[in-house]
Amino acid sequence: QSVLTQPPSVSGAPGQRVTISCTGSSSNIGAGYDVYWYQQLPGTAPKVLMSGNSNRPSGVPDRFSGSKSGTSASLAITGLQAEDEADYYCQSYDISLSSWVFGGGTKLTVL
Amino acid sequence: EVQLVESGGGLVQPGGSLRLSCAASGFTFSSNWMSWVRQAPGKGLEWVANIKQDGSEKHHVDSVKGRFTISRDNAKNSLYLQMNSLRAEDTAMYYCARRIAATATGGYFQHWGQGTLVTVSS
Asked: Do A48 and B115 touch (CB under 8 A)?
């Protein structure tokens, strides 16, 4: 059971918009810690997709956007493309656990 | 270009030991916190350990405390993870990562290596 909760899977057709939620608590996201998002393509290492809740690193398309509110965060992907098919993870820090924590991951399928 | 190259993984029996290494290049290694993150086969990501720039501060996830030790050699631009008393549940791909953070808490893992696979089995 992950400290940060994500839906196991989401799907969408090419060109559509999908969102992936990340629900935490008052000891992590709700405590003011930033949320980060990673994309893991099949057979590869994770890559940072979003830093500081909503900041896109250089090279990440503006089709990806992040937001945070209260004890939750979300990643939105617009204009879905086949190459977006991957696992997505949120990450934050938990002050009660004194630990860096990840969500369980969400598998995005492009139909 | 930032590069992180892990090595040292392999098959080990339960109760055995293994030392993972990570060779870093393309950035000022001694100026960065560094981390290990693991991923069990078919599972999600789990943070394992962090170490401060000068090695004076270390953090380990509870499940490995007393068994794993993170260390670094800034002269060699290298990060290490000494793993003792290994268990089947430690089987995972182990990633070396460059941590970006303004303080001792928070932050994220900006760059990742390709990983080294550790399998604990008899």
From this structure: no
